[in-house]
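Practice problem 4.
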């Protein structure tokens, strides 16, 4: 386990990492929390043995967004310097070479919603609230919300979320495609672990390359996307994990992957 003042990273099982935000009461994204997240995510990006990451909160709320008290005291030049750092945190989560899951309880608002959107999957407690509140504060999402939400939910729904600045309940988030799964609040941690363990049980090289193919091919033509897919497929040929999968199938047992 590694930890900074407000963030800790734990290993729950082989290849499974859990990043916990724990800056009471609402994990407001001020300078200190953003710096701690940056250090943790830099280490996670270099973690060759990681297979899946869960991003969660230690308290009642996932993340209520920007620390508005701190922001109020910032000069405009300080804001210009800080917001790209927050965007960089979301980019770092999205850029991890292996899958990530946001485990959302309580409120995920503004930058907190953007943290969740940067993850590959989102599991929400049934009493969670999520949304991009920025236009109600006379600003707009600046950490990827205007770009990731349309890609996840579609342009029309993203416009409704951003223009209205509403917090949506978990059921509506699921209906709009933002939440992949909604579970009872008491079952949230177990649900996220179950999905993460399912991912981590698969071939690590294959999962990483599948993520690269999906992410890299999204804005390509179909022909170029298919070429990228084959390039990624080439990356699994000759791996020990592929050989192990074929042996396990023949021997009618579960494979034991090593990530090589």
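Answer key:
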């Amino acid at each position: 386990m590694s930890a900074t003042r407000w963030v800790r990273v734990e290993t729950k099982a082989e290849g499974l990492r859990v990043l916990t935000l724990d800056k009471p009461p609402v994990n407001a994204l001020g300078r200190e929390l953003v710096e701690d997240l940056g250090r943790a995510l830099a280490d996670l990006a270099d973690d060759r043995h990681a297979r899946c990451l869960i991003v969660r909160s230690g308290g009642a709320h996932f993340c209520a967004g920007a620390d508005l008290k701190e922001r109020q005291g910032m000069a405009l030049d300080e804001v210009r310097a800080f917001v790209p750092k927050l965007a960089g945190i979301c980019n770092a989560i999205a850029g991890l070479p292996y899958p990530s899951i946001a485990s959302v309880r309580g409120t995920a608002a503004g930058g907190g919603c953007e943290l969740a959107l940067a993850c590959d999957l989102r599991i929400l407690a049934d009493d969670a609230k999520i949304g991009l509140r920025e236009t109600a504060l006379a600003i707009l999402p600046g950490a990827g919300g205007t770009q990731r939400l349309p890609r996840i939910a579609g342009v029309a729904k993203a416009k409704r979320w951003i223009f209205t600045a509403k917090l949506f309940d978990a059921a509506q988030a699921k209906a709009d495609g933002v939440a992949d799964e909604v579970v009872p609040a008491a079952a949230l941690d177990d649900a996220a672990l179950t999905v993460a363990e399912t991912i981590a049980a698969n071939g690590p090289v294959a999962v990483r390359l599948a993520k690269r193919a999906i992410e890299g091919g999204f804005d390509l033509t179909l022909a170029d996307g298919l070429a990228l897919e084959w390039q990624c497929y080439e990356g699994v040929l000759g791996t020990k994990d592929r050989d192990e999968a074929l042996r396990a199938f023949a021997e009618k047992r579960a494979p034991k992957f090593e990530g090589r």
